[in-house]
Amino acid sequence: MGEAGGAAGAARAALVAARAARAAELDRWLGSLLAAGQAPGDVALVAVGSHARRELTPGGDLDLVLLHRGRADVAGTADRIWYPVWDSGLRLDHSVRTVHEARTVARGDMKAALGLLSARRIGGDGALADELRAAVLADWRADAAVRLSELSAMCRERWDTQGELAFLLEPDLKEARGGLRDVQVMDAVAASWVASAPDGRVRAAHDLLLDVRHALHDVTGRSTDRLVLQEQEAVARALGLLDADVLQRSVAEAARTITYAASHLWRRVDRFVTSRVRRASPPAPAADGRAPASTGAHAARSSGPSPARRGVERRPVGDGAVEHEGEVVLARNADMNDPALVLRVAAAAAQAGLPLAPATVARLAERAVLPSPPWPAGARDALVSLVGAGPAAIGVWEALDQAGLIVRLLPDWERVRNRPQRNPVHRFTVDRHLVEAAAGAAALTREVARPDLLLIGALLHDIGKGWPGDHSTTGAVVARDIGARLGFPEDDVRVLETLVRHHLLLPETATRRDIDDPVTVQTVTAAVSEAPGREREIIDLLAALAIADGNATGPAAWGAWKAGLVAELARRAAAALAGGTPPPAPVLDPGHAALARHDGAGVRVTGSRITIAALDRPGLLWRAAGVLALHRLAVKTARTISSPEGSGGTAVLDFTAVPEYGTPPDPADLEADLRRMLADRLDVSGRLERRARSARVRPGVAVPPPRVMIVDDASSTATVIEVRAHDRPGLLWRTGQALGARGLQVRAAQVDTLGAEAVDVFYVVDAQGRPLTDPAELKTVRTEILTALR
Hints:
Mean pLDDT: 89
CATH topology of the largest domain: cca-adding enzyme, domain 2
CATH architecture of the largest domain: Orthogonal Bundle
Shape: elongated
CATH class of the largest domain: Mainly Alpha
Structural class: alpha+beta
């Protein structure tokens, strides 16, 4: 590694020296051409573009401007320069301008403006060259809101055309997103004073891409910027790198560094442009056509403090995280010693559909304590919540990756990070493919009973591609180790291992075997028997994973025909398996009954554990959940048990709940409100409705719609209803209200929040304590729960 690194360093240093020497030689030669005819003093030769930046590669174009102060004989001077350049074989882009003409062109031509922003004098009148630079910069800054908006649109159009450099098999090093052009654009934005200049990491990434471009020109002898497959080995050798894979990983890392920095820069630009547009827009007229009362000098004096004096609002988006100017930053009371903090803040940002502020990421990387294996449940849930945010998770994950936090959290990630696929079917590097698959799996969480295992399985399904051998086999071993590291129970680790080992089972079997042959279905069911008792669950997980994997790979890997075959095979395999019903209803614990006998009702709050034992009554579950919501507690788990005699007997509610954000409520206050609820002296519904009306809710990420299923034959004494939904404050309250509105009693419940997804199972009976049998009634119950959740 040391020798390879030394060879690469020496090769790149030689390229840098070659560019510097060439720039100096070109300057001397061009200067001599200008001076050869005794050029007048009011003429200057200026370089723009790559030569102005001393970055001219062997195939690069020479871009020159001959400035003058309105001389009629300037054409003769121009000819003495242009013709020798043409004769030398160099490609030349040239113009002859006065300062006024150059300013006029720059105002109407973005390419010309970007070139003139980096103008460098080669020879002639220095004051004239300085006048040009100052004038172009002044115009650029004065028109920043308009010009940067135009520049943003141009960049997005270029990205749509050229694609993202980090993930292309044959990228354009200059024009693709994350390429050399983007750094030049970042410099132009910095020249407007709207954002800071690119930092050292971006400069280093730019220099690497410039060296690759230089080596590509040397190897091919052409002025190409596209790094095609057949040239990659030769370019790698020219750069002193081991092989084309190492080259592609280096290029991908550089491009992702540039893309990440550019994304933050364009957010700043968007805020700047938006603020200027708002400031420039006149107030809307009143309904009678008159100017608004707030206009005029008196109104300006009396309308209150300006936005700058009022300060910027910081809105909580999660525990330890707040929104500030469109980004997520740390709350002032964030505990840097909390091992779940990094992932919880990242999850809050992703779920809110907001980026993480770069300064916040840097602070977390420098100071925050990270979870040690086995991870605490809070850290694992936050990871699930992060990847479960769907597409919004990708940018947040990239922010953590750029800060080096992902490989610190998951050391095995290093082996797949920036690893090229070298397969045109794949759109992404291995690591980005995994994140894309997990983000895609978020849309399928309603299809499985364990959304957390689906999301983590999708995140790890190709983790074996960083190791020798069959990636499914080696990946299963790595997934088993990572599952244990994340703190999953052994039974769940076995499921994760099975998912990774067999993630190709359904698509490969469905497309290569006859699914009408009983042996085909037996092959599938035999493969998933590695996790006894979980086979039906694994079939559902594998079917959802196949969809997420195929869509993340690319259009050539997934389509309607393949999706139909996989779905049918999964259906037949599931039908061949027994089980898959919810767990049996809990039974009443003697200790819980003793708690209930104490004054007829008992309430105990111990940390995040809240236990209530009381005489059973309709609505007890959802009223208790409402009290927890009033205290801004999010229910992570709930187990409710009622005695067989139903209403009038004993009911025990056992909750695990954590604060939505901030510090937990005072246990005494929470206990007091729960006791008032049990005594019917607390208007839970009214208080929740008042709080909901006053709350300002910012839309988060789009989530799949809730799903409500009536589970047939799961119980002989109750109707089993399973609710799968995106977790949010008051979810259990709304579900319980819908059940109560139909006169139903919850005999038992098993509520679990897995990351940001809730999977809740309710055993309900009617007022006479009997299961529901009328299909119309069951349909109505299902519809009303869905209505309440939407």
